[in-house]
Structures are given as C-alpha cells and as structure tokens.
C-alpha cells in the first residue's frame, strides 16, 4: 500500500493498520511515526481511535499490535477463503482417523487464531472456537508455527512475550520455550502437555504457504485421560502427513503469489 497517496482519513487509518499487521513484532509509537510520515498529533489521535475500536492493541510497554476485533474480521473472511477449502478435507480425514478434535490455526503476532475446527466424536468437547485467539507459547499449534520463524524474528518475538502461568506446565521463560522450539524444528511436530488448559493435550505440525504469508499449524486435541503421550507420539506422523497434504494442495491450487 502506498503511504504517499493515502491522504484521506480512512486511507491514513489503513496505512497504520497495514504497518502494524505486517510488522514481525509489535511497533512502538516512534517506529510508526518514522514509517507513516504523519504529524505526531494526528498519528496519536488515529492510533487512539484504532485502539478504542479494538482494531489495535496497546500493551504495557507502549507497543501496538493487531487487535482481536481485526483478527475476528480476518477469521470471518477466512471462512470464504480458498485456503480453507484446500485444508478442510484433510482436517476431516484426520478427525475421522483419530476421533478427536482437529484445529487449524494461523500465527498473528504473539497469538494463534483458530481458523477452522472439526469437532471430535467423543462426549467431552473442546472449548476452542473459530476466531478465538490463544497465546502462541503454550499451544501445540502456536509452538509448531514458531518453529517456522527465521531465527532473528523468533528472538524478537520471544523477547516481547509476557508469560502467564495457565497451568503448572506452562513455559515461564523465553529460554525454556526457545529450547523446545529448536527441538520442534528438528522433529517436525509439537506437543501441548497441558500447558494452556489443565487436562488438555495435543500434537501439532506446522503448515505454511509457499510465500509464507500463512504460517500456522494443525493439531489433534483431546483430554489427557484419553490422550496419553505415547498415543500422541503415534499420531505425530498422521498429523505431519495431513499438514504436508494441505501444503501440497495449496501449492497446486493457489500457487505462489506474485
């Protein structure tokens, strides 16, 4: 998007949204000021409006990131996206093979946004919903997605994380998370060992598009009393195969963006 031609109010707001949503890490006011080339006072008012509307979020360190309302818009748009059509049969096949809930999510900033879900056949169901956001550092899909990031991007993202201890198993530091991410990158799959919700486990594999505009993952999720770690390790290969089929389908059907 050209920042010099967008002179109207809506155009200026779109420039700001474009800057923040395409940044690898949250931006400070001074970062946006240098890139947007707008007067300081005007920029401050526009950012405040975007935060008030939930399109951007401002954290305690003064950094701007995509807001959940903006991500909700993206998730709703995704429902009609060809990408979902490519993934859907493979998600359903994985759910039929395991009987458990299957998720597809995309990495956005420090969060995973769930874009699709195939509910399991078992009586105990998952709380997750399409469009919901979860922290990347304590979910299987999130950690699988993090394993795809370039080293410098991963370092910046980890440095900006604020770790919340959802359970006794949640990562409490960037150091321990980074060590696991390296392991995930080597083996090609990730586990959620009751890190986000007590009693919930999953195995996940990364999924990405050729141009890396989509970086995320798929997972099989269920209650710990049904999903032993041994069983999850057995399911790692089927999850990886489903991820590979989705990526191949995307390559054939959509092709790289020019």
What can you see in these coordinates?
The structure is a single chain. With about 260 residues, the protein is α+β, with helices and mostly antiparallel strands. The protein folds into two domains: about 10-65, Winged helix-like DNA-binding domain superfamily/Winged helix DNA-binding domain (Arc Repressor Mutant, subunit A); about 70-255, 2-Layer Sandwich (Beta-Lactamase). It is built from nine helices and nine strands. The strands form two sheets. A six-stranded antiparallel β-sheet has the order 6-5-4-9-8-7, sandwiched between helices.
Write the layout of secondary structure elements.
Blueprint: H1 9-22, E1 27-28, H2 29-36, H3 40-52, E2 56-58, E3 63-66, H4 68-78, H5 82-98, E4 101-108, E5 111-118, E6 133-135, H6 140-146, H7 151-159, H8 174-187, E7 190-193, E8 200-208, E9 215-223, H9 229-253
Antiparallel strand pairs: 1-3, 2-3, 4-5, 4-9, 5-6, 7-8, 8-9
Helix pairs in contact: 5-9
Features:
about 260 residues, alpha+beta, Arc Repressor Mutant, subunit A, Beta-Lactamase, 2 domains, 6-stranded antiparallel beta sheet, 3-stranded antiparallel beta sheet, 9 helices, disordered N terminus, DNA-binding transcription factor activity, DNA-binding, WH_DNA-bd_sf
Oligomer: single chain
Largest sheet: 6 strands, antiparallel
C-alpha geometry: globular
**Strand order across the biggest sheet?**
6-5-4-9-8-7
CATH topology of the largest domain: Beta-Lactamase
Segments where pLDDT lies below 50 for 5+ residues?
A: 1-6
**Can you count the helices?**
9
Order of helices and strands: HEHHEEHHEEEHHHEEEH
Strand runs, count? 9
Q: What is the CATH H-level superfamily of the largest domain? A: GAF domain
- Helical fraction equals 40-55%
Helix-and-strand structural type: alpha+beta
| Rg | 19 Å
GO molecular function, one term: DNA binding
InterPro entries: GAF-like_dom_sf, HTH_MetabolicPath_Reg, Tscrpt_reg_IclR_C, Tscrpt_reg_IclR_N, WH-like_DNA-bd_sf, WH_DNA-bd_sf
Pfam families: HTH_IclR, IclR_C
Protein name: DNA-binding IclR family transcriptional regulator
């Amino acid at each position: 998007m050209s920042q010099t031609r967008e002179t109207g109010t809506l155009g200026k707001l779109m420039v700001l949204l474009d800057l923040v949503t395409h940044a690898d890490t949250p931006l400070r006011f001074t970062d946006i000021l240098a890139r947007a080339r707008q007067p300081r006072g005007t920029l401050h008012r526009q950012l405040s409006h975007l935060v008030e509307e939930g399109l951007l979020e401002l954290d305690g360190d003064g950094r701007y990131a995509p807001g959940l309302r903006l991500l909700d818009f993206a998730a709703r748009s995704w429902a009609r996206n060809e990408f979902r059509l490519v993934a859907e049969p493979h998600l359903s096949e994985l759910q039929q093979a395991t009987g458990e809930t299957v998720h597809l999510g995309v990495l956005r900033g420090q969060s995973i946004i769930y874009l699709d879900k195939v509910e399991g056949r078992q009586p105990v169901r998952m709380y997750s919903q399409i469009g919901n956001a979860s922290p990347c550092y304590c979910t299987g899909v999130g950690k699988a997605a993090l394993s795809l990031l370039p080293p410098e991007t991963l370092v910046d993202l980890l440095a900006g994380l604020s770790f919340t201890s959802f359970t006794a198993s949640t990562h409490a530091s960037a150091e321990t998370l980074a060590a696991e991410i390296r392991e995930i990158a080597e083996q090609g799959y990730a586990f959620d060992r009751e890190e986000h919700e007590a009693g919930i486990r999953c195995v996940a594999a990364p999924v990405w598009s050729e141009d890396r505009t989509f970086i995320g993952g798929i997972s099989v999720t269920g209650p710990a009393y049904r999903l032993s770690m041994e069983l999850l390790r057995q399911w790692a290969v089927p999850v990886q195969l489903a991820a590979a089929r989705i990526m191949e389908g995307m390559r054939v059907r959509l092709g790289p963006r020019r």
